[in-house]
Amino acid sequence: MKSIASKSKSRRTGIGLLFLGLFLVLHSTNAFVGRTQVASNSRHRISPLFVAKSGGKLMKTAEMYEETVVQGSSSQPVLVFFTAPWCGPCRLTAPVVKEVKQQFGGDIEVVEVCTDDLAEIAEQAGVVSIPTIQFYVQGQKVDTIIGCVAKSVLANSVSKVLADAAQIISEPSP
Questions:
Q1: Distances from the Cα of 88 to the Cαs of 6, 30, 146, in angstroms?
Q2: Catalytic residue among 90, 97, 111, 154
Q3: Which of the following is catalytic: 58, 59, 79, 87?
Q4: What is the average pLDDT across 100-125?
Q5: Residue 76 neighbours by CB under 8 Å, 6+ apart
Q6: For residues 141 and 8, which has the higher predicted lDDT (pLDDT)?
Q7: For this structure, is 87 an active site residue?
Q8: CA–CA–CA angle 138, 139, 141 (5° rounding)
């Protein structure tokens, strides 16, 4: 007959093994890393595609940020979502950003910046609290939203930025 202590120990071991198995399954499918992998050539070599949880492009380097946000915002507005993996309000805002991205289709580009990885970019952008959403048109910041935001509020801001961007882009430069 097993003692109560040994039954408890076997339950803990069983639960531990269950969690280990779940971790291995999730880790092997890249559920933890937040990126999608696609076949890059006919040999089916796998390469990471940097897709953020907000559905936008994940900025990995300062050069990538410069190219996408500062230089890329001349052709269409860019929504920059400053976030961190440990931030609860950021995790609540990410699906909202994703929905708005889908709503506006290709009218606005969405990028995500992890403030832990690119702290210097966040500092240069004037980010003091996260989540922060900034809009850029022709390399200039035109609007900022700080904190959790409802879908309707973010959609209204995107609409306003798109209207302003149409005027800014159509104006001849001096």
A1: 39, 21, 14
A2: 90
A3: 87
A4: 94
A5: 106, 107, 108, 109, 165
A6: 141
A7: yes
A8: 105
90 is catalytic: yes
Residue 39 has pLDDT above 70, yes or no: no
- Summarize pLDDT for 76-101 with one digit per residue, the tens: 899 999 999 999 999 999 999 999 99
Listing DSSP states for the chain in one string gives: ---HHHHHHHHHHHHHHHHHHHHHHHHHTTTTTT-EEEE-STT--EEEE-B-TTSSEEE-SHHHHIIIIIIGGGTS-EEEEEE-TT-HHHHHHHHHHHHHHHHHGGGSEEEEEETTT-HHHHHHTT--SSSEEEEEETTEEEEEEES---HHHHHHHHHHHHHHHHHHHHSPP-
Q: For residue 107, give the amino acid letter.
A: D
Model confidence at 30, pLDDT cuts 50, 70, 90, reads very low
Q: What is the pLDDT of residue 52?
A: 75
Q: How confident is the prediction for the chain on average, in pLDDT? A: 77
Distances (CA, A) of 80 to 13, 14, 74, 83: 45, 44, 15, 10
d(CA 110, CA 14): 43
